[in-house]
């Protein structure tokens, strides 16, 4: 396993909130500009529907990140593959807009690529084949440092700290994994190192199970890390910032309506979706004539 401190993950794929928003805005504006300049075969400017906003793009990304988790659960893939696939998906859409590449295709390519990189056999026919463009958009940086490995590392340290097996430690670990699952659906993995994501997850899990005095535990692990680049106050500030990133709610009636509306807008911008719709309509009319 490569070291995160010397990895391309750390040097190329951790951003500030400002830089992250700027990347989303640049890809959104480029896609909107390209769509406006599309020319029909007869030479007239196409009358494209309204492009998606950056907020609507975020809604679509989060929806398909949920789908990646569902696919990984259905195939019983380990958490590492799930985290790697979602990370690939996030990185891809730092370079592209959902208006340029539909997430339903990129989603499967990311899962497939994650399986190949993590050496978990799955056939291309089951998930769909990976795309060369995916690799280029990822800068060919395929090694992902997932928070789940850090969760395991902190768990080992916590067992030592508690001087043996605590009955609640297993529950603490499982809850921490669930917290990481949620964090993976936010921008946090693009803003914070995996170790900090894992530590924030343990802190939140400990709020539920009350296993240790967490401030004292933080002091303990911080004192043992002589090469730490953070003072304690900075570390706590980072953990608090991670806690501020909550998963976008998709199950409320208003969120579902927003999602349907955004999906319709995206389909209207996708020529292949329009062509499929015309084929279905033509097929339906043909059937009605026969009856």
TrEMBL record:
Lineage: superkingdom: Eukaryota
Coiled-coil features, chain-numbered ranges: none
Compositional bias of kind Basic and acidic residues: 254-268
Domain Cyclin-like, first and last residues per copy: 66-181
Compositionally biased region (Basic residues): 280-291
GO biological process: regulation of transcription by RNA polymerase II
Pfam families registered for this protein in UniProt: Cyclin_C_2, Cyclin_N
Gene3D superfamilies noted in UniProt: Cyclin-like (1.10.472.10)
SMART domains registered for this protein in UniProt: CYCLIN
SUPFAM superfamilies according to UniProt: Cyclin-like
Disordered: annotated segments: 253-291
Record GO terms (molecular function): cyclin-dependent protein serine/threonine kinase regulator activity
Keyword set, alphabetical order: Cyclin
Presence of keyword Repeat: no
Keyword DNA-binding in annotation: no
PANTHER family to which the protein is assigned, alphabetical: CYCLIN
Family: Belongs to the cyclin family.
Protein's name according to its UniProt entry: Cyclin-like domain-containing protein
Organism: Papaver nudicaule (Iceland poppy)
């Amino acid at each position: 396993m490569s070291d995160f401190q010397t990895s391309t993950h750390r040097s190329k794929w951790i951003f500030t909130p400002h830089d992250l928003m700027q990347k989303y805005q640049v890809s959104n504006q480029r896609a909107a500009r390209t769509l406006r300049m599309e020319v029909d075969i007869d030479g007239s400017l196409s009358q494209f529907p309204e492009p998606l906003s950056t907020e609507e793009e975020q809604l679509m990304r989060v929806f398909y990140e949920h789908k990646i988790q569902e696919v990984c659960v259905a195939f019983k893939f380990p958490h590492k593959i799930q985290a790697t696939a979602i990370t690939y998906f996030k990185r891809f859409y730092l370079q592209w807009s959902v208006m340029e590449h539909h997430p339903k295709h990129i989603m499967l390519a990311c899962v497939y690529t994650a399986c190949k990189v993590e050496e978990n056999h799955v056939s291309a026919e089951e998930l769909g084949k990976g795309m060369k463009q995916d690799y280029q958009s990822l800068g060919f940086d395929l090694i992902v440092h997932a928070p789940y490995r850090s969760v395991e590392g902190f768990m080992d340290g916590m067992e030592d700290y508690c001087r043996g097996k605590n009955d609640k430690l297993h529950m603490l670990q499982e809850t921490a994994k669930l917290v990481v699952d949620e964090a993976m659906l936010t921008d946090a993995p693009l803003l914070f190192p995996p170790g900090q994501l894992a530590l924030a997850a343990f802190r939140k899990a400990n709020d539920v199970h009350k296993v240790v005095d967490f401030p004292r535990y933080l002091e303990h692990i911080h004192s043992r890390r002589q090469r730490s680049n953070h003072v304690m106050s900075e570390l706590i500030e980072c953990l608090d910032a991670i806690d501020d990133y909550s998963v976008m709610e998709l199950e409320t009636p208003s969120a579902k309506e927003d999602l349907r509306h955004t999906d319709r807008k995206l389909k209207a911008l996708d020529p292949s979706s329009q062509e499929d719709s015309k084929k279905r309509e033509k097929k339906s009319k043909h059937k009605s004539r026969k009856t």
